[in-house]
């Protein structure tokens, strides 16, 4: 996984956490759910990158 991908995933995750917290504090359940969705999306992207990395290692790159 490239450093840019790692950074992007970390930013997406942090933004999702912030959005979730803002929604929780403001009583906005839609925003809270959107933040949770953003975090889940970042986790899926991270998992995909980990699979790519594992495949590259298996192929000897």
TrEMBL record:
Q: Where is this region: Disordered?
A: 1-61
Q: Which Pfam families match?
A: CsbD
**Any idea where the CsbD-like domain is?**
5-57
- Record-linked InterPro entries: CsbD, YjbJ_sf
Basic and acidic residues biased stretches? 14-32, 46-61
Which family is it part of?
A: Belongs to the UPF0337 (CsbD) family.
What name is this protein filed under?
CsbD-like domain-containing protein
Q: Give the source species.
A: Sporichthya brevicatena
